[in-house]
Amino acid sequence: MTETTPTAEQFWEDFYRERDQIWTGNANATLVREAADLTPGTALDLGCGEGGDAIWLATRGWQVTAVDVSATAMARGAQHAADAGVSIEWQRHDLMETFPEGTFDLVSAQFLHSPVERPDERARILRRAAEAVAPGGSLIVGGHAGWPTWAADNPPHAVHFPTIDEVIEQLDLAPGRWQVETADFVTTPSTSPDGVAGERSDSVVRVRRLA
Predict the structure, then answer these.
(1) More confident residue, 67 or 16
(2) Is position 91 within any domain?
(3) Looking at residue 84, which CATH number applies to its domain?
């Protein structure tokens, strides 16, 4: 019998249903680092998961649209937002098929990595994310730059982590219409499931659409 690859919705629904909570609820460090000093406006959070980033933005005064393919994840995010006393618009999208309408002062795409990623999927989504940035607005892309140190010698599976240059190339930015403001690596502590301490290196790219 031939095994079929699950759809993005099937995979992430199963992923989130495995446990009552997957993530810590804290905002991603790459987003906090790059967005903390931005003037709040409208924000789009792509791949919002259980809502940590979206809630952090909303508590800082952003009007947030949060998007994920998993209804289970977004339901948890909506409950967390209610508990935090903030209002967020939640939209379910498979970003290869549909995308939120409009433009935004901030578009955030944090760790859009997927074991069931289709060919050119991440690049296509990032290009669409750039199109959704309003004049004068920013796009922040955070991603893993490699396996944590405790997994580097024996990675669980083969995967290509895009370099910073590859991320910028995937964005396909029109010359003269964008400014690259950040292209950097962020190293944070990371502990394996069995308690081995190490660190993880992530890439962060912030670009601004010129008015």
Answers:
(1) 67
(2) yes
(3) 3.40.50.150
Kindly state whether residue 20 falls inside one of the protein's structural domains.
no
Backbone torsion region of residue 17, taken as left when φ is above 0, otherwise alpha when ψ lies between -120 and 50, otherwise beta: alpha
Structural domain count of the chain: 1
pLDDT at 139: 98
For the chain, helix, strand, coil in percent to 5 are 25, 30, 45
At a CB cut-off of 8 Å and minimum separation 6, what does 151 contact?
A: 192
Residue 2 lies in a domain: no
Segments forming the whole domain that contains residue 100:
8-15+26-209
pLDDT at residue 1 greater than cutoff 60:
no
CA atoms within 13 A on the CB side of 207: 28
Query: Which sign, positive or negative, has the C-alpha torsion 151, 156, 160, 161?
Result: negative
Report the alpha-carbon distance of residue 39 to residue 209 in Å, rounded: 15
